Structures are given as C-alpha cells and as structure tokens.
Amino acid sequence: MSAVLAVLEQRDGTLRKVSHEVVTAARRLADALAGTVDALVLGAGPVAGSEQLGRLGADRVVVLKHPAFQRYAPEAFARAVVALAKTGGHAAVLLPASATGRDLAPRVAVQLGVPLVSDVTDLEFEGGAVVATRPVYAGKALLKIKITAKPAVLSLRPSVFTPVERPRAGTVESPSLANAEVGRVVVREVKAAAAGTLDVGEAPIVVAGGRGLREPANFKLLEELAQAFGGKASVGASRAVVDAGWRHHADQVGQTGKTVSPMLYVAVGISGAIQHLAGMRTSKVIVAINRDKDAPIFKVADYGIVGDLFEIVPRLTEEIRKLHG
Amino acid sequence: MRIAVCIKRLPDSETRVKIAPDGKSLDETGVKFVLNPYDEFAVEEALRRREQAGAGEVVVFSLGPAAAQETIRSALAMGADRGVLLQVDRMPADGLVVARALAAELKDGAFDLILFGKLAIDDYNHQVGPMVAELLGLPCVTSVSRLEIADGKGVAEREIEGGIEVCEFPLPAVLTVDKGLNEPRYPALKGIMAAKKKPMEIKPTPLGVGDVEIVALTLPPERKEGKIVGEGPAAVLELVRLLREEAKIL
Fold it and tell me: For an engineered disulfide with A69, which of A42, A211, B16, B32 has Cβ 3.0 to 4.6 Å away?
C-alpha cells in the first residue's frame, strides 16, 4: 500500500490553517492510490489541533518534538522530513507553498534526489503517476505536469484546497527526536505583525487599492472597509502604489507581488493592468470600484460600480458594518 | 568579496500568453524577453556589496538559450564584471536539472555569496536557489528583504505570513532576494557601452532529462462576464444584496 506524507505547519504550538488544506489534498491523492495519509508536524511541544486531523482524512499523525523546532530551522526541518519520507517509502510528499514551505520543499526534494513541483492548484493520479496542475506566467496559463519520480514532491498553493471532512482514525504519536541540531541558518527572532493583521495572501477577503486613491493617507478608507468585515479582511495594493512607496511590498498583489485567491476581492481605484489581474484572477468573487467604466478591471469583475470611490467606499463600509452589527 | 548572481531570461510581465501548436509551450512569436525582475534586486545587491567591500568580483551566470547573452549583458551594463552563459536549446521543465547544472558550474568558484531572485515570474518555481544551496552544501536563506553582512556572518530578514523572520547565517551562503531589499539602478549609457567589452563565456551545457514531463499548457478558464451593478454610492445597496443573495458570500 502506498502512503502519502503531508508535511504540516504550526506556529506557537497551533496548527496553521494551510495544514488542513495539505491534509485534504493528501487524502484525495491517497484515495486515488488506495493508500494512507501520514501527517507530520514538527514542534517544540504539543501542537494544538493535531488530534483533529483524523477528521480531514489523516490515518496517522506524527508530532515530532525537539527543542530545535521551536522556530523554523530550515536544515533541521529538512533532515527530519527526509528521514520520515525515506523510511516511510511514501509515494508522494505534500507541503504547503507557504513562506516556510517554499523554503523547505526544495531542500527536501534535493535530499530525496527528486524534482519539486511547486505551487500546485490541482492534482490527480493518472496512469500510475501523479499529475499536477500549476499556474505559470502568473496565472495567465496552466501547466499540467506529470511526475515520474518517487516520491513525487509537491508544494500546494495556499487557499486552493478547501478542507473537506473525510474521517479516518487520525492516531496521534508524539515522539521526541533524540538529536537534532538547528543547523547553520538560525531564526533568531520572529517580528510579528500587529495583532489581528491578516496576511494578504491568506485573508478570506482582500480590499485592494491603487492609484485611484490619490494619496497614501486615503488608504484609511480601505482599512476601515477591511475592519468592517470583522477581522476577515486584509488590505492589498497595486504595484503602482507599492513602487510609489505608499504601501509595503508585503501587501502587493500581482505578478511581482502576491498571488491571492480570496473568497472576495474588492479592487478599489485599480485599473487592472495585466500584471495585477494575474495576481487576483482566481479570487472567487471580484468586485471593482472605479470611475473609468472602460477600465480593464471590469472585464474580470463579477460586480462593478462605476463612480467616485471617495463616495462609494464609505457607503459600502457603512452597509457592511450593518451586516456585521 | 566574490559574488555570483544567477539570473534568468524570461517573457516580460506584459506578455499576453499564446499557446504554441505543440500544446505544451508558450508561442514566443512577438514576445519580448527581459531579465527576471527579482534578479535585478540580486544584481543590485551584489554590486552594492562589492562597492562596500571596495574590492571583489561580481559574476553573472545564466542558463538559457543563445539569446540569454542579451540578458547577461543587461546585468553587465548595471555593473557586473563578467558573465557565463550555460547555453541550452530549451529550458528544462525540471528545476532540479537547472539547479544541478548551475551547482556544477559554481562549485569551484570560491564565491562568498551566491544570489538569486526569490522566484522567476514565468514558471514561479521558487526552487532553483535553495536547490543549488543543498547541492553545494551551503547555508541558504530565501526571500531576503533586508540584509546585513559583517565579519563572515550575515543577518537576513525574510517575510513570512503575518511577520518577519530574522535569520543568522555564516558565509559562504546562498541567498534568494525579494523586492524591497534595494532599488535596482538603471544602467547608464556608459555602463551599456562598457558591457559590450566585458568578458562573456559561453558554455554549451548538456542537460539531464529530469523526472517531470509536461502534459499540457493551457489557458485558464475565462471568468464569466460580470455586470456593472450601477453608478455611484446609490449602487452600494444593490451590490450588497447581490453579494448576499447571488454570490452568497456575506
């Protein structure tokens, strides 16, 4: 029987949401292979949420503990994942394409001597091989790629694989690793963003602004709208305003920024250059607010309002507040 | 300070994608090729480090077709000292194949730093840099947006979801760099002229086959035609109603 290894992510002793997505995708692949799902999470102590993973289809959950796993330690993490993948004879190893996963996955692949297919948005098992789909040219095309190596190592784009309940045993083991060294790259500190700030790449709702806002201070309008969504929204920005220094690069959506797939994307005063559309076209619902009725953003928007954003946005904020009263 | 920068030639971000008749690749007719924007930050950082150290060499490496010579020239025009093209007929789909070829070339270069852009905006693989580091057995920090180097040690900041990781590492090391690290310079006319005379080595590079196979390249499904709900703030009520009742997301 073939097993699929799901490599999960925790922060401060709690599983991150993306971990649920990885288990969900692993279950899907394991079903196609008539195999099982092993979930691995590395931490310094117990990891809250690991006992719930059976619900999403994990057969076995390994919480591997070592003081070196307090923070991300690229070299130690890679060694631990590779050790389990080697002894487990897994058919596939799945990681999140998160900031950590993007760093970890290539290391794991090289140590296993196999390729890495990154940022996967769909996967299936066809003719004895894993076939993955991934966006290229920043979402302007989709590449379907067959992996002939074993294990197939893949990283999964966050917010794409919606968690589905597929109950399995989910037996949890929590072994302690006897000897692990942090390695040469040491994460000395994690500077956390202000409490309650959602990452643009992970927020279920993104309210993004462009040049139409005229000056940096006017982003306050978008911050207020984001707040009205009750902690579910984050503020994004177009490349133009990031390059102008109005917003930080971490907030940039587009080909040289983040690629996002939120439930709702509200584009405010963004004309919709091809590079921007590339970064947000996979959003589930797109709303555009722009004064130019011919702006390209309206071509991809599900709903558009033409007019002065300085009148429209406060009104929208007011209505959303009423809903979340 | 000896610094290697690995760069990639790729289609400009303005490119409208057309699929080639083989159904597996980009139709390159009329496509403008440029230096990967993230690699510009890598070249700029290398130049600044060399200038700061007051001595050293910045060598630019690229794996690509013969036309990638132009891409290397653009890095030389910014100020890099010399270039090496690992010439291939076509770009491999397997990033590990690229990483192996680069690692073999860099192995004996005695570089203090090997820099990459954090990803290439065509294939979005974000993997060749850390793979090269693994193959060479060097420490590696990815997506670096702030960097300090002194006494053979570095401190780098990298963005993670909802925060910033501060990483310490020893040199020699491999770093992949993010936007925000610096502001890349525009090549001056003098630099462009000088670049024409700078040494460039062209090495035909046989590649392994790799363990991935492209099945198809397709255009993503078109988004369904949307609708203009209305004009001005009066349309907000209808928008909220549609989001609740039709899209069912509020």
Answer: A42
